[in-house]
Amino acid sequence: MARQFEYTQAEEIRNAFARHRVRYLFLGKSGAILLGYPDTTQDSDLFLERDPENGNAALQALHDLGFIQLKNGPFDLDLVFAPDGIESFARAWARHVEVEGFPVCHPDDIIASKAASNRAKDREVLPRLRAFRDYWVSHRR
């Protein structure tokens, strides 16, 4: 049974990853939700910088969070090192948004990733994500 993503889980991730200086971004619907998108998701999607030092730091942070095995943790978490539709971590990092200390992919990168994955569930959410992005951009100033 999939568990529901909760804000407290995002805080736990943020805090553990900050302690270990992990370079990452929230991606997918969990990222959009942190930006204010009104929806739910079953997991947190994290885009990690692909680098041995960052990988080791991420493993230490995940251990702190209680992950013994990635398939059996305290909540559902997807780690992505090369998401579809995003050229590189460095480019995504240059566009990212900070929300209450959460590093989040820009809505354009979230949309690009969903569009490139081309899964039915992602195609279904794209019109709402695009409308949210337009709203978010217009109210950000």
Helix and strand topology:
Blueprint: H1 7-19, E1 24-27, H2 28-34, E2 44-48, H3 52-65, E3 77-80, H4 89-95, E4 97-99, E5 102-104, H5 107-117, H6 120-139
Parallel strand pairs: 2-3
Antiparallel strand pairs: 1-2, 4-5
Helix pairs in contact: 1-3, 2-5, 5-6
* Strand numbers in spatial order across the main sheet: 1-2-3
Output the CATH class name: Alpha Beta
Q: Total number of helical segments? A: 6
Sheet bearing the most strands, described? 3 strands, mixed
Q: How does the helix and strand content classify structurally?
A: alpha+beta
Which percent bin holds the helix content?
40-55%
What string, H for helix and E for strand, traces the elements in order? HEHEHEHEEHH
CATH architecture classification name: 2-Layer Sandwich
Q: Give the uncertain stretches in residue-range form.
A: none
